[in-house]
């Protein structure tokens, strides 16, 4: 019997809508935002056929855009046979319903689009639960009158996820499902904490950055066995991946690749992915990967910093890693950036440029949390001697009669355990000056 080919949904035709409000949000900035929105639409499976921009100080409470623009948009949707209209600004449930009735096609805002992309990208069981939770919380206030038009949809953007399975479900069942998902995610988080408890003694570093900045590519370069999925797409990575990064003998860190951030990242996603983002909270320091080739990279840096504050990251141990320097055609631009960001590291993850300097920078930052100790034990005390050689950086050894004196450096996360193991064997004064 011949294999039946798998049919995919045809790509949808989309119009993008942006609303600048000068001078706070100039038209030029909204045009940049719509370029990113087009990238998001492409990732979700839509081809952008046209964009519409209307300058408004105040949003229309019924349609967001002016009623004259609604008529203009209707003509565009008919002329270009458009399937979906995507707004860069968030819409209220009422505005979405009114626009869909007026335009006779699907209408979705930026938040809904990002949720759709997360639904497409989610692979692991945990990621799928996190995305479903975010979708349900987004849809809950939109249930009234929502199911009528959803029942007419045949696929495409905005239909992957709970919208397909919750059409006949009332608010009570949706709330029950939300509560169930939250409990399951708490259980998964507790199980993860138990399984990774042994990692706490090892320094931890997390990669953060705007989506598509090259975090997964850098992860694969630094840890060749990482196998992190890397693609020129937004949100290619949703699941945290952690690998060992060897810096030198008995000095290593655990490097974690995390989900990328984006402008106006939906709050429901931030909340539902909080357990995944715990890797960022628990890291000793962060590598902030920046796409230097993007014209708005400094605004992207501000978005990442704002999101980090939102999830509760308070420490300042962050290394800025400017990626894709090979995409800069003018060498003077790079010289100027080095002068403006003297503490940053400039690399190309894809081409492996300057990764040695990045490793040295990581080692330097890790080294700040190491203390130097000296211990004198009997030469037959193999347990302590072996443990120190295996888990610390032994920097000196001197034999004195039947005793051996070891000088070693140990990370703060392992210091308490080492002190408990050595007990009173340490010399008076214990710690010597940090190196």
Explained architecture:
- It is a single chain.
- With 435 residues, the chain is α/β, with parallel strands linked by helices.
- It folds into 4 domains: 12-110, GTPase HflX, N-terminal domain (Rossmann fold), CATH 3.40.50; 117-193, no CATH class; 197-366, 3-Layer(aba) Sandwich (Rossmann fold), CATH 3.40.50; 370-431, 2-Layer Sandwich (Alpha-Beta Plaits), CATH 3.30.70.
- It has 16 helices and 14 strands.
- It has helices at residues 27-44, 67-79, 93-103, 110-121, 125-139, 146-150, 162-165, 171-195, 215-222, 267-272, 278-282, 297-311, 331-340, 355-367, 382-391, 412-422, and strands at 12-18, 46-53, 84-87, 106-109, 204-209, 241-248, 251-257, 285-291, 318-323, 345-346, 370-378, 393-400, 403-411, 426-431.
- The strands form 3 sheets. The protein has a 6-stranded mixed sheet with strand order 6-7-5-8-9-10, sandwiched between helices. The chain has a 4-stranded parallel sheet with strand order 2-1-3-4, sandwiched between helices. Strands 12-13-11-14 form a 4-stranded antiparallel sheet.
- α1 (27-44) runs parallel beside α4 (110-121) and α4 (110-121) runs antiparallel to α5.
- The longest helix is centred in the middle third of the chain and has 25 residues, at 171-195.
- The N and C termini lie far apart (72 Å).
- 36% of the residues are buried.
């Amino acid at each position: 019997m011949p294999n039946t080919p798998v049919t995919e949904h045809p790509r949808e035709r989309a119009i993008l809508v942006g609303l600048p409000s000068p001078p706070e949000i100039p038209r030029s900035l909204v045009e940049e935002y719509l370029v990113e929105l087009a990238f998001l639409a492409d990732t979700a499976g839509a081809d952008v056929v046209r964009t519409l921009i209307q300058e408004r100080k105040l949003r229309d409470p019924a349609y967001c855009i002016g009623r004259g623009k609604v008529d203009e948009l209707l003509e565009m949707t008919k002329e270009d046979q458009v399937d979906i209209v995507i707004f860069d600004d968030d819409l209220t449930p009422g505005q979405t319903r009114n626009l869909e009735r007026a335009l006779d096609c699907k209408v979705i805002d930026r938040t809904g689009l990002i949720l759709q992309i997360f639904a497409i990208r989610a692979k692991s069981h945990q990621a799928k639960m996190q995305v479903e939770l975010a979708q349900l919380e987004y849809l809950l206030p939109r249930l009234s009158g929502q199911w009528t038009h959803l029942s007419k949809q045949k696929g495409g953007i905005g239909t992957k996820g709970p919208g397909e399975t919750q059409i006949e479900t009332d608010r009570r069942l949706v709330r029950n499902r939300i509560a169930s998902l939250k409990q399951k995610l708490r259980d998964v988080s507790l199980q993860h904490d138990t399984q990774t408890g042994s990692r706490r003694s090892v320094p931890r570093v997390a990669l953060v950055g705007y989506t598509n900045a090259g975090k997964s590519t850098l992860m694969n370069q630094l840890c060749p066995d990482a196998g992190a999925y890397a693609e020129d797409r937004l949100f290619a990575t949703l699941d945290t991946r952690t690998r060992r990064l060897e810096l030198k003998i008995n000095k290593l860190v655990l490097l974690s690749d995390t989900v990328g951030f984006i402008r106006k990242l939906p709050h429901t996603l931030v909340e539902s992915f909080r357990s995944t983002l715990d890797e960022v909270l628990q890291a000793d320091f962060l590598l902030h990967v920046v796409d230097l080739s993007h014209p708005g990279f400094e605004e992207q840096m501000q978005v990442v910093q704002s999101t980090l504050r939102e999830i509760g990251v308070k420490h300042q141990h962050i290394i800025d890693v400017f990626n894709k320097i090979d995409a800069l055609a003018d060498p003077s631009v790079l010289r100027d950036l080095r002068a403006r960001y003297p503490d940053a590291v400039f690399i190309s993850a894809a081409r492996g440029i300057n990764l040695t300097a990045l490793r040295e920078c990581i080692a330097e930052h890790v080294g700040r949390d190491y203390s130097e100790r000296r211990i004198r034990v009997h030469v037959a005390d193999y347990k302590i001697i072996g443990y120190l050689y295996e888990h610390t950086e032994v920097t000196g050894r001197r034999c004195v009669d039947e005793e051996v004196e070891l000088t070693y450096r140990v990370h703060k996360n392992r210091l308490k355990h080492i002190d408990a193991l050595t007990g009173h064997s340490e010399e008076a004064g214990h710690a010597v000056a940090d190196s």
